[in-house]
Design goal:
This protein is of the alpha+beta class. The chain has one domain: Thiol Ester Dehydrase, Chain A. It contains 5 helices and 6 strands; from the N terminus they run H-E-H-H-E-E-E-E-E-H-H. Strand 5 and strand 6 (about 135-140) form a beta hairpin. Helix 1 (about 5-15) runs parallel beside helix 2 (about 45-60). The chain is globular.
């Protein structure tokens, strides 16, 4: 089940936090609970994505995106993600999550998130390609940037991020049905 209560806690916790600048990092702390574990007693890979939501959504709120979502009746959608899993996270372990904007192109906004253990090791790292949607159509990022009143242009996406999603764009869709 989706961690709605945990998300509500994060939104309440950060509702009065200072607004983030465009390139600032949102830092949050989370605990791995028994219901987050798989049969091997480590953080389930699917739950990892839900826990990343617990950092990404408050980040968007603090960055001012929620105001634009409400005023324009846009919705936020993940259009693609790549996650690297490198260190086991186990029951009751506490993690620090860092969430930040990497940049954008004409269609997508790219976010980076990472989970860190108490000893400073990176356990998981994710890149999320996100889009805003209105009336079942993607909103051009130029419209989003204008609505948020941002004056900076996007940073150049790291080559490895651009190449990874360029390869994903070349992948046949829909996949061949066998």
């Amino acid at each position: 089940m989706y961690p709605f209560i945990r998300l509500a806690k994060e939104l309440l916790k950060f509702r009065k936090a200072p607004r983030l600048g465009m390139w600032d990092v949102h830092v949050s702390h989370h605990r791995i609970w028994p219901w987050d574990l798989d049969m091997l007693m480590e953080l389930n890979n699917g739950r990892t994505l839900s826990i990343f939501d617990l950092g990404r959504i408050p980040f968007a709120m603090r960055a001012g995106l929620f105001k634009a979502l409400r005023s324009r009746k846009w919705s936020l959608s993940v259009a693609g993600s790549v996650v690297r899993y490198r260190k086991r996270l186990t029951n009751l372990q506490r993690i620090e999550m860092q969430s930040r904007l990497l940049g954008w192109d004409a269609r997508f906004i790219y976010l980076e998130q990472s989970m860190w253990t108490a000893d400073g090791a990176c356990a998981n790292h994710g890149i999320f390609r996100t889009a805003l949607v209105s009336n079942r159509r993607m909103v051009p990022t130029a419209d989003i940037v204008a609505e948020m009143g941002l004056t900076d242009s996007s940073r150049h996406l790291p080559d490895w991020v651009a190449e990874m999603f360029a390869a994903d764009d070349r992948r046949p869709w829909p996949p061949e049905r066998v």
